[in-house]
Amino acid sequence: MSGRTDPPPAYRYAVSAEATERELRQCAFALLNHYLAMHQIIVEHVQLQPVELLILIATTTGNVQRALHPAELPQEFRGITSLPPGLVVPMSRRAIARVVGMPTETVRRHVQSMVERGILVSTPKGVLAPNRLAERWAAAAVLRLIDSHVACTEKLIAAQAIVPQAKRPARSARG
Q1: pLDDT of 1
Q2: pTM score
């Protein structure tokens, strides 16, 4: 029987503001190193300036939000298969600027450069990040990104900035 049919165990964690404040340097160091590792992993395959990485992340996330909102993404779209056009939403340059907190003109210039280099695709309704999941490097890069995330999370747990969340008591019927 496939392990996919059984739901994975649920873990709940909370952020401890007190521990984060107490271990602020360690927490900041772990998070910033994770961000730099993410940038390095992506830049190995797609040549980007740091500002362009923000634009790519905002665009990619915005493009697929509609597809990832349903509780159950159809099995055929969980791997490398491109999403159908109805589930991919182009982002305007103005929306990207709002998400990344930069002036629209700055975003417009970077997006134009990224379109010219084939990193983004311009459509009449906005900008799309092409599906790169089928490219040979994508799965290995995602594994490295997850590994970096795990290392960061382990450091935050060790600093007690992330702590197991107390289970919520079952609701009782009021009578």
Answers
A1: 44
A2: 0.73
